[in-house]
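pasting input
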Amino acid sequence: MIPVIIAIVVVLLLVVFVVSVFNGLIRLKNRVDNAWAQIDVQLKRRYDLIPNLVETVKGYAAHESQTLEAVTQARNVAVAATGPKEQAQADNMLSGTLKSLFAVSEAYPDLKANQNFLELQEELTATEDKVAYARQFYNDSVQQLNTKIQTFPAVLFAGMAHAEKREYFEADDDSRGPVKVQF
Amino acid sequence: MYDQVGQNKRRTIVLMVVFVLFVAVVAGAFAFVFKLGPVGIVFALVFAGVSGFVGYWKSDSVALAMSRAKPADRQEYARLYNLVEGLCIASGLPMPRLYIVDDVAPNAFATGRNPKHAAVAVTTGLLEKMNRVELEGVLAHELSHIKNYDILVSTLAVTMVGIVALIADLAIRFLWWGGGRAFGDDRDNGGGPQAILALVGFVLLLFAPIIAQLMQFAVSRNREGLADISGVEMTRYPPGLISALEKLRDDQTVVHSASRATAHLWIESPIARDKEEGKLSRLNRLFDTHPPLEERIAHLREL
């Protein structure tokens, strides 16, 4: 009798173990997917803010039309971009044009005192941070998933859970190097 | 960096185990001195457990009310909300509730029972004196307290201090009303060593509350260092928190609505302290809930 009970307990423990490893894998996999979607959410928010910003600046600094045009154009390119690499490039372009827009606005005291402009500036700065953090979280999640599916015991069930190794989000060579400032 | 986090966690576990053992020893001493049998002990433990559970469930509203914190307005404190949202994205935490404490002293604390029921409170002084990166460093430290379940650890520590205090209190009352009998019985048994053991047990009971309190402080100091490091892991930018801690060090103002009871929650100890030197300061350090800011800054510089 006792050996039977021991056998049942061992089998039950094994089942619990397998289920928890499998569920852990699925959880991680979904987290990676969600982290990737979160980047897009933040990028979209950024695209939505830009037309407002352009309109606000136009009211105060109409002769900076060149800078404004560049921002609008960079935004449209970024919205249309497909694929992670192209998108990263377009986003870097957009960040650059936004920086020069904020630099130009320094010369307009009325604009800088405008509550709407200040709010938009805060929102855009925060959204850029959030994009960076979303990418960081994506990479952290990918690292966890990749480590898990390559190590014991999850390596045994990775195929069953359809968990595959994921690619990291990588900044392109331009944005990794030191920033060049031109006067 | 990851090593430091692991080391800190291990140290906390060791401290908690020592803590539990200490509670057991005190309870045992109580049973031995008064020949009570287990019933009284079980009753005391159940009582302490229930009060601890209630404390765990309600700890956030109590801490927030004690420090007169008001809910932060999304529009008015857009920067605060944005920074916390960003850090939550970086760490995968749910968004905590945000509160403002109207006080010129720069400080902040986190509370709640788990990440889903958490709150972060900052003083108006902190928002005024810190720039964006510094504020972000401080908020990352607070979110780390939530992520590392420090709130739970400190609640457990406080509960165990409560249990020890309760047992010691009972011991003193028993001795007052009829304790002579306990010692008399020992003499009847003719045990010299027995009487000595009872005396040792009694002395232990007398000092137990202070020792338990010191252990709670040690746990708290340990968690502060851990939150500094895992906060930096969130922002990936140590200079932000370093410069924030330097500002806190140079600032002499003290939070008015903080008390000894909530001291362990804040990012910097809200209790005013004179600069002391020599042996006295070493002894005093045992009673601190936070490691010295100088030491925390030095640790972060090493990363």
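fyi Chain A touches chain B at residues 31, 35, 38, 42, 119, 122-123, 125-126, 129-130, 133-134, 136-137, 141 (CB under 8 Å).
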